[in-house]
Write a structure and sequence with these properties.
Chains B, C: Heterotetramer of two alpha and two beta subunits. The complex is a heterotetramer, with two copies of chain A and two copies of chain B. By secondary structure, chain A is α/β, with parallel strands linked by helices. In chain A, about 35% of the residues lie in helices and about 20% in strands. Chain A is built from nine helices and 14 strands. Chain A has a seven-stranded mixed beta sheet with strand order 3-4-2-1-5-6-7, sandwiched between helices. In chain A, about 65% of the residues are buried. In chain B, the strands form five sheets. In chain B, strands 7, 8, 9, 10, 11 and 12 form a six-stranded antiparallel beta sheet that branches. Chain B starts with a helix and ends with a helix. By secondary structure, chain B is an alpha+beta fold. Chains A and B meet through α4 and α5 of A and α4 and α9 of B.
Chain lengths: ~300, ~375, ~375, ~300
């Protein structure tokens, strides 16, 4: 078993007819992900990449009852509706790539989907990959290799960077989850780490945080409470960022008493989690831990 | 996006939240008219889209017309936290009996809207949160039913209100919550919310609207642009995120996380980033060119460090953008590039032909950038 | 409270719902200018706050300016369902391919908002509901999450939409739902919502706003008053509910149910009510006096039947009100009273002294009123 | 047992300090209803009719844990909040006298209170009386007498009228519920009749309907389905009302395909329910039924 996506993943792509949705659908299919159908309102009956397009997820699900996962490329104004639709169709994993969704919309849609028992990853995220098995996302998969280290990250390219550095050292990954950088997200850091903690095919978890919010502090607290049993290695981006500045994503805002890099690093250290100062230290720390565990 | 105080107060008034009588002026000469209308003493408040204005000297009390004129002159010449003062809100000074704090914002962890209230207003909430967290009451709001009047009243009692004040507090909180929901706000805040001899009143009123929701509130599109300064404004128009800092190594990355990590690495090896510049996902050569040009034109930048991990972004496009910028710009500066990912090989070739030092490792590239910055200096 | 079509369409436009280009005119002379702006043919639509206007001759097509002028003249002279026409909305006639029906209203039984849609628009929904109930799709809306886009699309497919029409339908439904919620509406309706060669468009657009929520939408206070006619307007100002009917026995009761029952009893014994007048709860003598006077002044009323069951309302106050009206008014008419309940005894005495026939039984009082009406006639 | 209110009813009055709330509190207390406290925001600490006033229902409930019922006289703009407050305090019966509440507010508050397990009666109603036991409402109680006939009514004064006529004939009432005339109400006709159907102290149920809505039609359908076992006698006010006219209360509107008097009378007759043409026939029909049942 790996986390969230694997050989049994059957995907419907919401927004498959758009340029971006189509490009990444093709990439995912090349990687071996089983995409069965696409959904674009008003374009039901068309075909993209040899897959049928439906007007609603419900229709797709009726045609392909084995669908269990959706990936959403719908433009920001309609993305929250797409999440609600996927949840109503009974899909259990909903990966939201779309960025720029109004936060009040995300709040409404994510809460609803969760109340229906769905796991929402994102929005504004690169998705989920279980190397060698399936990819439901937009990451350049060539930098990921199968293995036993899990990655949970709030950042996109930084995830690729860390995976790449691990891969170069010969350390493969069980699953990498890009949880997204928006203020309100579905699966959060603590939940993602807990999923990996329960996964028998994951030995160690790399957590890539960034400034803003208190996700890292909450994870550290959960580790301190003994809720996570596997070793965790962390990196927090943005130590050099001055307080009160917006650094691109909404997620990277320091304000309203939310967490600075210092507070996050301190919390991790107090929970016994080794923290890398810069990305290239991550493979060192992972290697060290795996050796301690006798896994390397 | 921060609204200016007077814009936020216009909304407050529409929702029946009492605010002090005020007049907006755009030059010192208008201050006398404002005083004629309001009476003395008055408070002059610089209208800048940023918090912490009071501490930065943007709010002053004037007891007579001469003093008011002088303060107005001084404020209009000032920059507050980098923002020029284009307008001043002149308000009748209130007779304050007590200052409270009240705001609505998002509780990320619990995916809810939350009301924050304190009997100790006036202070920056971050400081209060640090120094006296028990003085802040946090009321989570159930999304299915929204703000409950009786829970607001319970909070009001906890911060020591009773009688008419308790009722006003309830009314104001209900209005603020409605504003929060109606305007896709990230924050609606009154600090201080004051008990005055004229009743309870929002002396200050702040609103931050979700940038992603501006399409639903087109009346604020202009406000959004105002918030950006100088080169940041140009950057925003060209589709990348740009924040100026005070170092000398120009940073270009893709993705907020990687760009921040690039700054961290530069810092780790002893350098000082001059900026944060995220070219975003899937950037083409034109956008990269514009990004590099912004840094070439920034006199503080001595070296440019481009760190790209190509996923959707093609390394070749990034390389072509860098080369084009160097060709077009009259200013020449050393550039260090680290370009990995999709179309890496072509990218490498293009940069090598242009004589731009290229690294496979982020650390090595950062070290070189730091070395070059010291050399130039 | 019914908004006029043009008022409702202003709101529709604000919420990005396409409506035909139109010009509001207030006299026939303005019709040429409207045609110059819009082109021919045009539709002229009388602006009256009531449904069923089309059937009552309030909507007409004009193919040339002369015809348009004639129609305008005629409409301005008309009363439509009792409402004078103060303005006409002149609209460019649309090239209609298909007419749909779409509305949002309250589902009382399930305590929900419900969306009603049909592929067969243009007809009165009541008739459609009677004659072809299966043609109306009913979508209940979960209050916790609101209108779901995909459910709207499913309804759209059921009424035969696809492609761009399906998307327009979704957008328009979302906007209408938002209007319904934002404006405290009892009804938001487009009938027909038409597929035209210009895309999907709300040819007609109707809104009823909850009278009890007008305090939240003060911009419509004037509209509310406009809805009342003549004596009804006076009645509303004086705090009672009044509706004119076409019989000759004036009815005054307290409470809508008892007042309707009074009408039923009069009718049962062969009389015809001239009106419905509910003095409401706890009426004092002044309000009763005004109510009696309204009926005294109505030439159609031959007899007045006052039926009061006093709970909060005191029988003595009612009696004093009746007597005062008779004293003040120059018009004299027979009055039959049946006054039971709180302060019954004093009430009785006052009426007896004034020589007003008094009954303990509603039936006996009704019979006497019917007898008197026949006698007067 | 009687329905909803009895000797065990313990009442908090929301809006007790107002003229109207105070007057009716006094009336209820005179009738023997156990009012323990009042609530008016901002007036906590005062006393009215010898009862303490609190700022919140929660405080009243803390002081008097035996409270189980609220009656609301709060002005229309705050009445929905008052309902939500009573429900959150765990009160099981909430009687809403206030008229003129915006219907969207009622919708929100009534749904919430019901989800918390409370029975809401009203708004815009005269309340509930179990003659001789307790009155939580504003009806002139002198026209009610203890007995075994239940009354469910959408109309205020018409309820008093019918109770009075029954009383004059010597037919007492177990409980009379004025469910209110607004488009959205809490306890509806069908639910109220079902409560009475289950009450061992009620032999027969008088239903007083009026034009507008489809409550009477739904009750007739429930009777037809055999869901109500006790005899029902009905009167529908408004047979003479022309369609499309507003007759005072929002409840008395005929529009949007909702029920005319004819449709309601027809539905009752088809369900075997005798329908009075005018109020004075109600006691006749009741007497006749009771005789048939051997109860008179």
């Amino acid at each position: 078993m790996v986390v969230l996506v694997d050989e049994n993943t059957r995907v419907v792509v919401q927004g498959m007819t758009g340029r971006y949705g189509k490009f990444h659908s093709e990439q995912m299919m090349k990687y071996g992900t089983k995409i069965l159908a696409g959904v674009t309102p008003g374009k039901g009956g068309q075909e993209v990449l040899g897959r049928p397009i439906f007007d609603t997820v419900k229709e797709a699900k009726e045609q392909f009852p084995e669908l269990n996962t959706s990936i959403i490329f719908v433009p920001s104004s309609g993305a929250a509706d797409a999440i609600i639709e996927a949840a109503d169709a009974g899909l259990k994993l909903i990966v939201v790539i779309t960025e720029g969704i109004p936060v009040h919309d995300t709040l409404r849609a994510v809460r609803y989907a969760r109340s229906k028992g769905a796991v929402v990853v994102g929005p504004n995220c690169p998705g989920v990959i279980s190397p060698g098995k399936a990819k439901v996302g937009i990451m350049p998969h060539q930098y990921f290799t199968p293995g036993r280290v899990g990655i949970v990250s709030r950042s996109g390219t930084l995830t690729y960077e860390i995976a790449y550095q691990l891969t170069k050292r010969g350390i493969g990954q069980s699953t990498a989850i890009g949880i997204g950088g928006d203020p309100i997200i579905g699966l959060d850091t603590v939940e993602a780490v807990k999923l990996m903690d329960k996964d028998p095919d994951t030995d160690l978890i790399v957590v890539i945080g960034e400034i803003g919010g208190d996700a890292e502090e909450r994870l550290a607290a959960a580790i301190k409470r003994g809720e996570i049993t596997k070793p965790v290695v962390a990196y927090v981006a943005g130590r050099t960022a001055p307080p009160g500045k917006r650094m691109g994503h909404a997620g990277a805002i320091i304000s309203m008493g939310a967490g600075t890099a210092e507070s996050k690093v301190k919390a991790f250290r107090e929970a016994g989690v080794p923290v890398a100062d810069i990305p290239s230290q991550v493979p060192d720390l992972v290697e060290q831990k795996l050796k301690e565990m006798g896994k390397l | 996006m921060n609204l200016l105080e007077y814009e936020a107060k216009e909304i407050a008034k529409k929702y029946h939240i009492p605010v002090p009588p005020g007049v907006l002026i755009e030059e010192p000469g208008q201050v006398q008219q404002a005083i004629d209308e309001l009476g003395l003493p008055v408070v002059l408040k610089a209208q800048v889209p940023v918090a912490g204005r009071g501490k930065a000297g943007g709010v002053k009390l004037a007891r007579d017309p001469d003093e008011a004129y002088e303060i107005a002159e001084e404020l209009f010449e000032k920059e507050i936290k980098g923002y020029p003062v284009y307008s001043i809100l002149v308000e009748k000074a209130a007779n304050i009996q007590r200052e409270l704090y009240l705001s609505f914002t998002l509780d990320r962890a619990n995916r809810r809207v939350v009301m924050l209230a304190s009997g100790e207003g006036g202070m920056e909430i971050e400081e209060l949160a640090k120094e006296k967290p028990e003085a802040i009451i946090k009321l989570p709001i159930e999304p299915e039913i929204g703000l409950k009047a009786h829970e607001v009243r319970e909070v009001g009692k906890k911060i020591g209100l009773s009688g008419n004040c308790l009722r006003s507090f309830e009314q104001i909180a209900k209005s603020m919550y409605k504003i929060f929901m109606d305007y896709d706000a990230d924050l609606v805040e009154s600090n201080p919310l004051a008990i005055t001899d004229q009743g309870m009143m929002a002396l200050d009123f702040r609103m931050i609207i979700d940038d992603n929701a501006i399409f639903r509130h087109p009346e604020f599109e202009a406000a959004r642009e105002r918030e950006l300064r100088g080169a940041e404004k140009i950057a925003a128009k060209r589709g990348f995120f740009y924040v100026e800092l005070d170092g000398d190594i120009g940073i270009i990355g893709n993705g907020a996380g990687l760009t921040m990590a690039t700054m961290d690495v530069v810092n780790y090896y002893g350098g000082r980033p001059a900026n944060f510049l995220d070219i975003g996902g899937g950037a083409r050569r034109e956008r990269v060119k514009e990004a590099v040009k912004v840094l070439l034109e920034n006199p503080r930048v001595k070296v440019i460090f481009v760190n790209i991990f190509g996923g959707i972004t093609l390394a070749s496009e990034v390389a072509l953008g860098i080369v084009a910028a160097l060709q077009e710009s009259p200013v020449k500066k050393p550039i260090v590039a680290r370009v990995v990912g999709t179309a890496e090989e072509e990218g490498r070739k293009i940069l090598q032909e242009a004589g731009i030092p290229l690294f496979e490792s982020m650390d090595e590239a950062a070290k070189e950038a730091v070395r070059l910055a010291k050399e130039v200096a």
